[in-house]
Amino acid sequence: MTFVSTTFFFIATVLTFSICFVFVFHSIQDIAILFNLIIILLMLFNTYVFQVGLVAILLERFRTLFILSALYLTFSVTLHSWLLNLRWMNTNKFVWTNKLQVLFVVQRTASVFYYYFYKRTAEFLGDPRLYEDSPWLREVFAQVRQ
């Protein structure tokens, strides 16, 4: 039991006082957000709707996700940069300002909406109608051509 508590204390100390680990973890989180967006775009490219050329329908349908992804990535990068900047100047003190707290709350609130719309989009992209020719797609295509 002593080994586990000592190991936990060591990990907590390293994670608390090492700016390099914090930078790596924040970078991984920001890169993961970009990878999520790339995965959604790849899934959109594989749909029959995209291959037929009705990209506007897909962009209209998933506009909220793209906007929230951009906002969430912006808030995350801004928060992480600010935290690292404050931490770099004072490595031995816990620095937390009121504006940083507001940004933290905004970023976390945006994350709730981002993950909701990401999951909803992933579920919608599982619809088989998007991957085959269907009557509703022919109607939309006829409307676009007119």
UniProtKB/TrEMBL annotation:
Pfam families: TMEM138 (PF14935)
BP-aspect Gene Ontology terms: cilium assembly
InterPro entries listed in its UniProt record: TM_138
Superkingdom: Eukaryota
Chief subcellular location: other
Alphabetical keyword list: Cell projection, Cilium, Cilium biogenesis/degradation, Glycoprotein, Membrane, Transmembrane, Transmembrane helix, Vacuole
Subcellular localization, as worded in the UniProt entry: Cell projection, Cilium; Vacuole membrane
UniProt record similarity statement: Belongs to the TMEM138 family.
Function: Required for ciliogenesis.
Protein name: Transmembrane protein 138
